[in-house]
């Protein structure tokens, strides 16, 4: 495999022909091995490079290529028609939502109904074909690839990933009509700058195969209390058992969320196979607290954030059996588990032991002064940081993008950068000085000092 890693498609084809003529089977002739190799290939290479090597690679890669459809609530009727055509064969759907007045929302209602109808037809077509036994995904032997089965699975694949971006008001308002037709969903993400009410209970019941859930709102309240309550209307597959009802869930990320502590405890007990758990800038409150009903009008105090973190630390210390975590983050406003109890973090997530050391820089608050002081302190003796994790707080936009840009220009060792909601000025990317503002700033002094030149990031392997 070392020799093939740099080989051209023509050389790979020649090697396969020579192996077949000599009677020695090539590893690249085994579909199971090729599928394993393709699973490590990124989506771009899998879509634009692998299919053009040979016919066998093309057919095998079709099962792994994730086709996308983009639905925008601001589309024209012609644009929506084309998007719905792509939705028929798509496995991933991006749904961009915009804020609309009452009259505009009424006018756009037929378009939303068309999207819901298309998702409903896609789901029913998959269920009918599967029930009829028309899916043939198994070959008789390793040398034959089922062309018909590949074409069938590509054309009729169910929707498996839903990413909602924009003015997302709430789960009950915008997802209630779609949830019954999303039973094959494995990835669900919401990124919005609105306050929204999170009701994951209904999502998990409708989508039992979910493996990844990411919720990043402006602020949110997780109001599922109790979580996954078993009643007569619940399906039997969600009855709590020894393995928990959410046996497929592996990644759960939620940010800026108010929730009841019992809700989190019930959720953890229902998802025993979590490998990535990130609770970012959260706050635990009691359901009988008056702030629970007015969660969007309250700002976390230092005392409340500290109490939240201490309560959750106590909860995770008593958690048995421990989760098989590979990545874990817990923070409440200006407090994080890394600073409060790093030993517990390493206990819950042993895989981070190599990261949380002298080469790790992470903190939940993105205050400009704190960022500047920490970066300068770390760079004073020598710059050897390989992991830079900047957790952002919504609603705070300090001008620290400049500091981060200059830091990246002097950090050749940096390998991993996580910096959401960081505003970078376009002038920093104008390395050829084609913008008038960039050329102007070179000669215009600001407070007696000329602005530094646009630099090039030294972290080529980030």
Question: Would you kindly provide a written description of the structure presented here, covering whatever features stand out?
Answer:
- This protein is α/β, with parallel strands linked by helices and 462 residues long.
- Among the domains are: 1-65, no CATH class; 357-462, no CATH class.
- Helix content is 35%, strand content 16%.
- It has 16 helices and 18 strands.
- The strands form 4 sheets. The protein has a 9-stranded mixed beta sheet with strand order 1-2-3-4-6-8-10-12-13. A 4-stranded parallel beta sheet has the order 5-7-9-11.
- A hairpin with a 2-residue loop joins strand 12 and strand 13 (335-336).
- Helix 2 packs across helix 4 (55-62) and helix 5 (77-87) packs parallel to helix 6 (102-131).
- The longest helix is centred in the N-terminal third of the chain and has 30 residues, at 102-131.
- The radius of gyration is 26 Å and the shape is globular.
- The model is unreliable at 1-7, 137-150, 230-242, 351-369, 392-399 and 442-452 (pLDDT under 50).
